[in-house]
Amino acid sequence: MKRITVLLVEDHTIVREGLRRMLELDAELRVVGEAQDGRQAVALAMKLRPDVVLMDIAMPLLNGFEATRQVLKAVPGMRVVILSAHSDDAYVKNATAAGAVGFLVKQSSYHEVGEAIHAVHQGRTFFSLPVSRRFVRADLRSSGAAAKAEGRHLTSREMEVLQLIAEGKANKETAVELKISVKTVEKHRGHLMEKLDIHDIAGLTRYAIGAGIIESSVQVTII
Q: What's the pLDDT score for residue 202?
């Protein structure tokens, strides 16, 4: 029987190794790759074409929401399950808006993680119990579509720039990371402030934290 192939995306090595060992206990699953940031996740997903991607949210340079969006744009049939330490409504809605079909909290048991992977591979959705309880009467796909429509005014590139700004990167550093000119970064930065009606870096950082793009524990420098 063909095993379900899985790509693990998690920036903490000890967590990623633990997930791998845990999943290897299931004879029907096969971990085909590991990524420690969102950019690596996109590249490996395109190269390895796994059945399921288990995706962390809070990662440097490119968060799990935007990585999910880029992965699914490149490989539409792939199934993504978000793994997060938080289960706030904003996180769940951003995950479904990005195209994820599952959402697990990091307190989930081994059994629940395996069940989620099997479920999404079969074409179903899967959400951890704390999330399901809050949305038991809601159509999560509709919620995701609504969230996507609400956030569509920010382009994928603007979301990348927003994360790097919120992480304290200067325009030059952002330009190098995204392989674009400083002038283009400044243009995106201006568009972000105009669209969000936020006109300072501290405000953009607070917005990014509130939207789950970065965690409040991330060390940032206000420039």
A: 76
Q: What is the pTM of this model?
A: 0.71
Buried b (16+ CB within 10 A) or exposed e, 3-42: ebbbbbbbbeeeebeebeebbeebeebebbbbbbbbbbbb
> Cβ atoms within 10 A of the Cβ of 1, count?
5
What average pLDDT values come out for the chain (223 residues) when binned by 10 residues?
94 93 94 95 97 93 93 94 86 89 88 93 87 57 47 77 86 91 92 87 79 59 39
Strand partners, 7: 33, 53
Residue given tokens 């199934």 in the structure block: 79
Quickly tell me which residue has 């096969």 as its tokens.
30
CA atoms within 13 A on the CB side of 143: 17
State the pLDDT at residue 219.
41
Query: 153-210 in CATH: which number?
Result: 1.10.10.10
Nearest to 159 by CA among 144, 174, 137, 173: 174
| Contact call for residues 62 and 38 (beta carbons, < 8 A) | yes
Q: So what's the architecture of 4-148 in CATH?
A: 3-Layer(aba) Sandwich (3.40)
Sketch the domain layout of the chain as residue ranges: 4-148, 153-210
Whether residue 104 contacts residue 83, with contact meaning beta carbons closer than 8 Å, is answered with: yes
Q: Which long-range contacts (CB under 8 A, 24 or more apart) does 110-113 make?
A: 110/22, 110/25, 113/19, 113/22, 113/23, 113/54
